[in-house]
Write a structure and sequence with these properties.
about 50 residues, mainly alpha, single chain
């Protein structure tokens, strides 16, 4: 019975760590993607097209 509880706790911790890593990776991806988008359109903002 104790081994079952230890396995369950281990899988819960691993699942939480995967969730944290995935959400952090998604946040960094969106941040860099937004930065690239702003850089791409910066020249057009300066010339008044948009």
């Amino acid at each position: 019975m104790k081994k079952h509880a230890e396995k369950k706790a281990f899988y819960t911790i691993i699942g939480a760590l995967i969730l944290v890593v995935a959400s952090t990776a998604f946040f960094v991806y969106k941040l860099l993607s937004n930065k690239a988008y702003i850089e791409k359109w910066k020249d057009y903002d300066e010339c008044g097209i948009i």
